[in-house]
Amino acid sequence: MKKIIVALDGLKYSRGSSSYAIYLAKQMSAHLVGIFLDDFTYHSYKVYDLIHDDEPVSEEEVERCEEDDAQRRKESVEEFKSACREEGIEYSVHHDRNIAIRELLHESIYADLMVIDSKETLTHYEENRPTRFISNLLPHIECPVIVAPSSSTPIRKLVLLYDGDPSSVYAIKMFSCLFSTMEDLETEVITVKTNDHHSRTPDNRLMREFMRRHYPNAQYTILKGYPDIEVTNYLKHKHQGEIVILGAYRRGLVSRWFRPSMADTLMQELTCPLFIAHNK
Q1: What is the pTM of this model?
Q2: Domain 157-277 has what CATH class?
Q3: Which is it for strands 186-193 and 91-96: parallel, antiparallel or unpaired?
Q4: Is the CATH number 3.40.50.970 carried by domain 3-148?
Q5: Could you tell me if 245 and 280 are in contact, meaning their C-beta atoms sit under 8 angstroms apart?
Q6: What confidence tens digit (pLDDT) does each residue in 6-56 have?
């Protein structure tokens, strides 16, 4: 049985990422762990909002705010548990109370897959995607991750981004291992050629031989131009139910076009889930 972890902020509970993780756990017959990031430095209130007429902040008011936060976190956990029970999946809950990013990276060592909301911030503020929290997490994560939008639909089509780099093949391998039941879904392999006039995928013979064993019905699309622009424009007009699989998020990793900016651009422009995996 595989293990999925879903990163959750008990103060701003993401029903979207929770329900998507439950859907994936059901598809995979996996055990789902709700990681509640109860970072001791993070509260729903701002201390300066508790200051009135230049008077010191009262201990009673701080205590009341702390109790409100504790109650909100408790309600989030109960909502998660109730949703898991309703869908009949195996689940457990972890409360990580130290620095959230460190705790989540440590949890990722012992997981097969992580699911996280693309808008997750672990702060009071809304941020543009990718948020700082996501940007700091992805380069160092120790398992594949699905960055999910706030609202997702069941997976009906796989979009595999392939540039001939080993990292893009690794991401396909990891997705295939985790979601072997999806190998018969509609599948499209997308490659971008910038200066190459040939209409074949890189390592064409080897790649197609590999794909026949995993996704025998895959269709191949060759785009011309700059990858960041062409892939984004192409996928913008697609239908719901797609998941995009790509590799090489890690900063500093040499790749022809799956650099960090590709994943960042897709998070900014698309509303479908992204499956990201990178070999080291």
Answers
A1: 0.90
A2: alpha beta
A3: unpaired
A4: no
A5: no
A6: 999 999 999 999 999 999 999 999 999 999 999 888 888 765 555 555 666
